[in-house]
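Minutes, structural biology subgroup

Action item carried over from last meeting: produce the structure token record for Citrate synthase (Pseudodesulfovibrio hydrargyri). EB confirmed the sequence was re-checked against the source entry. Recorded below for completeness.
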Amino acid sequence: AIDITRLRNETGYITYDPGYANTGSCKSDVTFVDGEKGILRYRGYPIEDLAEHATFIETAYLLIFGDLPTRGQRQKFRDLLSEQELLHEGLRHHFEGFPSTGHPMAILSAVINALGCYHPDLLEIDSKADFLRAAAKIISKVRTIAAWSYRKAQGLPFMYPDPKLSYCRNFLHMMHSIPHRHYEPTDAQVRALTLFFLLHADHEQNCSCSTVRMVQSTEANLFASVSAGICALWGRLHGGANAGVIEMLEHIHEGGTSIPDYLEKVKNKECKLMGFGHRIYKSFDPRAKILRKAAHDMLESTGHDDPLLDIALEMADAAMSDEYFIERRLYPNVDFYSGIILRALNIPVNMFTVMFAIGRMPGWIAHWYEAYADGATKIHRPRQVYTGREPRVYVPLDSRI
Ligand code: ACO
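Output recorded by EB:
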């Protein structure tokens, strides 16, 4: 319980809102979410329509610039991304300094921040053209950096991007090709990866997006701001949940526990049901609905049989008919099914959150620019309710007992 008198400070009352659950931190035109009805729209377009018709690059353009591109605009944006896909050779050497056990999320955030050292002219954005160059560099290079962090951990040679390939094919090539053997994903795999990135592209003021906006509010540059977003995404309650889901499903598959026993533990608060629950969605997460079907379709079309999908479906049905979850309005979120798709693309579990970061990059960039262009945004500086000691007298070291 909070003593309301303690919330009063010299300038009046402040709002005590742990986790900012009821605080609007900004006005935004980018993404609309209605958690009660399970609605998600990017710039006014329903996520279901984008998932069915759009590419990831079109979606990125939409988020960043506000409208879907014309054919010409899309081609120009694609060309710009292709121009930017190589890393500076100096940056390549950064990978040599990381131990092979280095977590790819740590490498990704460090190298994205280090990009700023190679483009000092873009630390200050003076025009829309500057912003476009910085945004294209990050969206394009994040793929290369992500794939190389994986190759480094595997002790494999770095594969250079191939400008002839589309965004998703190029990423899979850098992950899985080996010298003299070009990796050829199926159309179903490319479609699934496109969908994965597109559904993760933005989600209004979640923890990582708010982090990007908070860092931007100090007038920090785009590279530093999105690098902070990557760090915020890493945790198991946010982007790290997709890896947590697969670990949970594997544990059940390997006989470590059964679904009913696991759910009992969750209800006894010994652990969480990873990939369930959401701060905003209280009826269903529309992204999870799309991914559940996509995971099914993809496994069917590739003839790939993943026992973890059966466990996930059984787990979701059991939880959604259990009073504990019904009462708390807990449903599968986007992370519940995404790991099944990533496994079918041969993406290792410690890369799952990196995949989320690649997808979320356009959203972070769109929010950074919105806050930057607003100009009137104040530095983010929440207050606190001080619960510490009253003033005390300093005791010299020799007199302390
Ligand atoms: N498993 C079990 N119980 C849960 C779960 C869960 N996954 N999520 C919430 N609850 C319970 C809480 O223990 C709490 O119960 P209580 O009222 O008995 O104390 C109640 O539901 C309300 O939960 P809060 O923690 O208050 O909900 P909040 O909005 O703060 O948290 C969050 C949302 C972090 C997503 C939470 O549901 C969670 O930890 N889920 C698991 C991790 C996860 O999947 N994260 C990914 C989110 S989506 C994304 O980031 C892309």
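Discussion: DSSP finds 17 helices and five strands in the chain.
Next step: EB to file the record with the rest of the batch.
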